[in-house]
Amino acid sequence: MQEKEKSAGKTAKAKESKKSWFQGLKAEFNKIVWTDRETLMKQSVVVIVITVILGVIISVMDAGILECINLLIK
């Protein structure tokens, strides 16, 4: 009988712990400051442009290095 009470106590503590955790999560989530739509769009455009530019630079460098290696091999 005591084992049932112990397991029931553990289950109640686990439920309380989960409830407390979710309350803490909700409280932290409410502290988040979301950026406005205009700022988000500007930053997204900058990230996309820089990604494309770096992709082109890496492609050009890769092609140049490949040509140099081909010249050395021949």
Describe the structure.
The protein is mostly helical and 74 residues long. It folds into two domains: 1-32; 34-74. It has two helices and no strands. The chain has helices spanning 2-30, 37-73. The chain is elongated, with a radius of gyration of 29 Å. The chain starts with a helix and ends with a helix. InterPro entries: SecE_bac, SecE_sf, Translocase_SecE/Sec61-g. One of its GO terms (cellular component) is membrane. Pfam families: SecE. It is found in: Membrane. It comes from Blautia segnis.
Major sheet: size, sense and barrel closure?
Answer: none
Query: What is the count of β-strands?
Result: 0
Helix content estimate: over 70%
Strand content: under 5%
Alpha carbon gyration radius:
29 Å
Order of helices and strands: HH
What's the N-to-C terminus distance? Answer: 86 Å
Count helical runs: 2
Model regions low in confidence, pLDDT < 50 over at least 5 residues: none
Mean pLDDT: 86
Total tally of structural domains: 2
Helix/strand/pairing class, anyone?
A: mainly alpha
Overall morphology: elongated
Organism: Blautia segnis
Keywords: Membrane, Protein transport, Translocation, Transmembrane, Transmembrane helix, Transport
Protein name: Preprotein translocase subunit SecE
Transmembrane segments: 45-73
